[in-house]
Input
Amino acid sequence: MPYPPAPWTLKGYALQTLQWVDVAKVRPLIPPQFNIISPWPNQTLGGLYISSYQSGSILQYNELIVVSGLVSYSGEWGGWISHIYVDDEDSVAGGRNIWGLPKELAEFHWEGTDTVTVSQGEKVLCRLTYSQPSLSLPLSLNVPAFGYQPGRILHFKSQFNFNLSLIGSQVEISPQSPFAHLNVNHPWFTLYQQSLNLVVDQPQTLA
Output
């Protein structure tokens, strides 16, 4: 089937890690017209986002997003998604053509209730082991991000509604992973998003 038009509504659950990322390691992944936001000297904010979008979603699929930093352009700011993987071909096409995101196909293996492994064939990209949530807090967030296509800079917002829990986790990234050099395997903390309702808006073209 052809990919659906924006906005996309996605429902399920997600895991989000946060940590500092070295600006020097991120710079080659970001087009030069973007400024990298450094809340701490030589460091920007990044992490991993792993989700499972289930019944009630416009498409049902799993997703791994590598946010390698915060950037700004033309008065707007947002996350820079350097790597993104899904297990649905329509999601790949929609992500690339609508939002300018470099989506690739990958396999997701959820083991029980505490481990998820993302791989491409024999190559393991990353594995996240996590604890189960206990207390949760309802939260709404509007998160901006950028996409990029040749000759076009895109900016869009994702509206998150979920029950948020702070959990423990351990991240393993294979040396063969395309984002291994970013060292996004030392999170300060991990957030568990239960009862997730996510709306990814139509992007605006900034240039």
Remarks:
- The CA atoms of residues 35 and 72 lie 5 Å apart.
- The first helix runs from residue 23 to 26.
- The chain has a mean pLDDT of 97.
- The chain has one domain: 8-205.
